[in-house]
Every structure is written in C-alpha cells, then in structure tokens.
Amino acid sequence: MCGIVGVVGRGPASAPLLDALRRLEYRGYDSAGIATLEAGSLTRRRAVGKLANLKSRLDSEPLSGRIGIGHTRWATHGRPDENNAHPHMVGGVALVHNGIIENHRELRNELKAAGAHFTSETDSEVVAHLVSRERKNGCEPVAAVRKVLPRLNGTFALAFLFEGHENLLIGARKGSPLAVGYGRGEMFLGSDAISLAPLTDVVAYLEDGDLAVLTREQIEFLDVNGERLHRASAKIAFSALAVHKGEHRHFMAKEIHEQPKVVGQTLAQYIDRNRTIRLPSVDVDFGTIDRVSIVACGTAFYAGLIAKYWFERYAKLPVEIDIASEFRYRDVPFGAGNLAIFVSQSGETADTLASLEFAKTHGQRVLSVVNVQTSTMARASNIVLPTLAGPEIGVASTKAFTCQLATLICIAIAAGRSRGVLSAEDESSLVRGLAEIPSYMARALELEPKVHELARKISTASDALFIGRGTNYPLALEGALKLKEVTYIHAEGYAAGELKHGPIALIDKNLPVIVIAPSDRTFEKAMSNTQEVIARGGPIILLTDQKGASLAASSACSVLELPDMPQSVAPLALAVPLQLLAYHSAAILGTDVDQPRNLAKSVTVE
Ligand code: F6R
C-alpha cells in the first residue's frame, strides 16, 4: 500500500511533505520517511511507526531542502524497521514507492552479481539501484528512469530525486494511483488529490505508463518513449474535506454517529419528489441484461452480498458476486453487455480496480458505487453512483458501509421497476421505508448504553461468533469483521443454518454468540439455531426488533431491541449496534481504535 508525496517548492519542503503524509496515513503507518536535497546532496530522516515519530525526529534533526519526497509505509516486503523505511537512497538517487515490484528477486540477484550492496529487504530498493546504475552509465535522470521502468513487473507509483538536480522531481505510474498538483512557482505530487489539499486545488492524474517531470515552473507528462502527453488538470473542491473528531474520542465513534445524516444525504440523491427512485446517470437498460456481477473487498463486499438478496428479490435478476482478489483470476463466463457493479469506499483498492478492468475487457458496463469521487475507480467507470458518507478516517469502515447499502438498494429497486417486476405500488412502499432509514438508525444509536454494557463481556472473551440468516448472514460476517479489526478478538460470522455443520463444536460458556434475527421470514429458523446454542451453554446476545424480542422471550439471552421496521431497510439499522459493539469493546480494551495494528485504510496492493 503506502502513500507517496513530493514537493519541488519555494520554502523548506519538509513541513508540506509531513502535512501531505498526514493525509496519506490511511494508506499505512508502519514507518515514514522524508528525503530532501540540501545544497545538492540528499539527506533523509526515517522513523518506525506512526508519522508522529517522524515528526519528533524532524523536530530534533530538521531538514532544510526546498525539494523533497516522502513516504508512509504499509509493510509488504521486509519488516517495519528503519532500514526498510523509504525513501531509499542509492548512488545519488532517492525514491519512494507505492506498489509491488513482482520480479524484485530476479532483479536483486542480477544487481548483486554486478556488485550492488543492499541495505533493505524491500522490493523497492532494486529500483533505486537500477536507476542509479543507468545514471552511472551516463544517462540523464529522465532517460535513466525511462530505461528502468520497462524492466519492472508489478505495480508502482514512484517519485525520484536526483543529487545535483535541485529543480527536478520525477513521478511514474503503473497500476498505483498518482496525482500531481500545480502551484505558483512550486509543484507537487501525491498518491491522491486529498494529500495535496493544503498545497493546491489544481490537480492532474497520471495514467498507467505515464511519467511526470516536475520543476518549479511546469509539469511535463511523457510516455515511456519520451513522447509528450497531454493530461488535463482540474480544480478540485476540497471544502468538504475538513475532518475533526468533534465531541467524540475516536473517528470511528463519530462516523458511527454520523450515519443517520450521511445515509439520508446519500438516499436523497436517488429519491425524487414522486417517491420513486431516480438514478440520473444510469443509462442501463435493466430489461435487456440477464445478470449483474458485484465485486468488492472486505466490508464493501459484505454490502454487495446484502445487495445480492435485494437484486434477486426486487429485480428478479441473478447476481454473480465475488471478492475482487478471486474474481479477476476466475474464468468468469460473462454474458456480453451485462452490468458489473464495483463497490468501494476509497476507489483505490488494487484488487477491485484490477477486477474492474477485467470486467471492462470482457465487454461489461461498469458501474461503481464509490465514496471518493476523485478516485481512480470513479474515473475508470462508465457510471458512478456516489455515496455521500464524507471522508471516512477510522480504518474500520462504518458509515461508508451503510451508505453503500443505501445506494445498492436504490439500484435494485430501479432495476426491478425497469424490468417490469416491481409494481409502482411496491416501489413506493419500498421508498417509504427508505425515507425512514435515518430515523431507524437514530433509534439504533439509542441502544449505545446497553451495547456498552454488553461490550464489557465481549472484551473479556477470546473468541466470538456472529450468526444470521438471509441478509442477516452478510451482517454477521460484517459484525465479526468489525470486532476482530478493532479489538483483535478472534471472531467468525456464519450463516445460522451452517452452525450445526461444524462450528457448533466450538460452543461453550466462554464463546459469546451474537444472533442477528429481526422478525423477518427467517426468524423462526434463526430461533431454532439459537436454542441449539443455548442448549450447549453458549451465551447469546440477540439483536432483533420489538416483535422478535417478544417472540423470543428467553431469559437465556441478552437482547438488543430495535423498533419494528420493514425487512428491506433492516440491514442498515442492524449494522449500527454491531458497529457500536466492536467500537465499545475496543475502547474498553484500549486498542488503537482508529488505526488498528497491521491495517491500512486503502489497500493499494494486490
Ligand atoms: C473493513 C474495511 C475493509 C474495506 C476493504 C475495501 O472495516 O474497511 O475491509 O472495506 O479494504 O476497501 P474499499 O471500500 O476502500 O475498496
């Protein structure tokens, strides 16, 4: 993953580099580093762990160069120690890298045989060696980079500095995102436009295979043959990007509480005055397609899994759903002209992006449900339906998930209408339900004190099970994912009916089982599964609605009770107590809730 930045500036570069890195910390926080050119020579500072450590280092040992590059790392090749931290410097060349050089072993062996000495275990260092070797062979910096890039397999966004070149920064991209920013007498480079927000609001994006040559006066785009390219710049509205925790201790808590508002905003884009669904940019004839593919990773995948039930129920449309890292390596028999939906908060997830390109090359119309509207995914799609969650800072996704659900149910309803399988009456009844979602979510937030009490019990457990049927099954998967991400407690989500096919062997008094069972068509069966757990001494937390609570009426359960609500909208409200349970358990345990260990907000490596 990793985030990279570069500044060829007027004043000392380290402060703007650090500021830009702060906005990229969502991409990883295993280590960070900055290199600048001071009086023609490269100098760097690196530190293990979060950016705060690099800042302390810079406070005691400042850098004064006006041109520099910076990096925040999510470790892939090599431990998160200082030697493996970027920038890497070899023979007058410094570089930062986001991506993976897949043929790094072969290149390393070749370089070692020629006498190169490596100081890190990273794949990235080979690139610094290769470029430095071309420099020694007499190539100018741009020519040296151009010569090396075709030798690299895998993905990269790279930024280079060259000793003796105080007015030259080179960026290159293949597979990993890279943007450049225009200032007055200064230019910038960063993994995304948001990282450049405090520096400029005029940005352009590199395309795969592009090189960007930045000086204080201009930015030139070249292809690998050195031919000039035109890349349009655009003004980006950054006003919505101000992010604060408000009165909350953590971003995760703030983002959970924002959901009634942001889900309401997201829905408002798609519901018109006549109480019908309107998807302005979706020029898809749902009547002529025979299948939808939905592809995503992690939490976004679980949103897609819930949407599968909706597409089948409301649009009678078969859904092929897969996690992106599997989808792109299968021999999917795509029907020509069908629709492929990609779901992503960041719009930068490498596997989802690669799957999107895979679907495109197989003649699919590509629709993305995406939160970051300046992202690579949004730019690569035929149709974009934005979720209006706003910036999600907590690494564990919460509000983006429910906004994805809100958008996906609108697509399913619109598809049902245009396929003639959903009557006007049914559509307006569904839309009436959607309009009530923010208030159901607000009611779900009122469960917080009770959830906090239950979190005390969860926080002492070493494992937990989440079970549900129908749309409650993907919710169980999501509830388990949230808990393990932020508490490090081992948790599993299961289809409740599967319990007796194996996992029931785990049940004992120390294994809390969270049952998600509102009074829907699967309720009775879910209750039978719950009884099977109770009979074996498993402690139950039942997440249900009012009717479900009265039907269950078991003293063997702790009950979290939501109001009765339409089955179609229940997943959005039920997600809230699950998120709160994970959050409060983590807060009790004192983990790093917003930046859990080993994770990064945006997964830009495959
Ligand atoms: C979990 C989480 C991840 C992401 C996944 C996809 O809380 O945040 O599982 O959902 O990495 O990320 P996006 O949605 O950015 O494609």
Structure description:
- With 606 residues, this protein is of the alpha/beta class.
- Helix content is 35%, strand content 22%.
- It folds into three domains: 3-242, Aminohydrolase, N-terminal nucleophile (Ntn) domain (Glutamine Phosphoribosylpyrophosphate, subunit 1, domain 1, 4-Layer Sandwich); 246-435, Rossmann fold (3-Layer(aba) Sandwich), CATH 3.40.50.10490; 445-593, Glucose-6-phosphate isomerase like protein, domain 1 (Rossmann fold), CATH 3.40.50.10490.
- It has an eight-stranded antiparallel β-sheet with strand order 3-2-4-1-10-9-11-15, covered by helices on one side.
- A hairpin with a 2-residue loop joins β5 and β6.
- The longest helix is centred in the last third of the chain and has 20 residues, at 399-418.
- It starts with a strand and ends in a 17-residue tail after the last helix.
- The protein binds fructose -6-phosphate.
Please state the second-level CATH architecture of the largest domain: 4-Layer Sandwich
Which ranges are low-confidence, i.e. pLDDT below 50, for 5 or more consecutive residues?
A: none
- Give the N-terminus to C-terminus distance in angstroms: 9 Å
Mean pLDDT: 94
The ligands found in this model are: fructose -6-phosphate
Radius of gyration: 26 Å
Domain module tally = 3
Determine the fraction of residues in helical runs and give it as a percent range: 25-40%
CATH topology of the largest domain: Glutamine Phosphoribosylpyrophosphate, subunit 1, domain 1
- Order of adjacent strands in the largest pleated sheet: 3-2-4-1-10-9-11-15
* Secondary-structure-derived class: alpha/beta
Taken from the alpha-carbon principal axes, the silhouette is globular
Largest sheet: 8 strands, antiparallel
At the fourth CATH level, what is the homologous superfamily of the largest domain? Aminohydrolase, N-terminal nucleophile (Ntn) domain
Reading off the top of the CATH hierarchy, the class of the largest domain is best stated as Alpha Beta
Proportion in β-strands: 15-25%
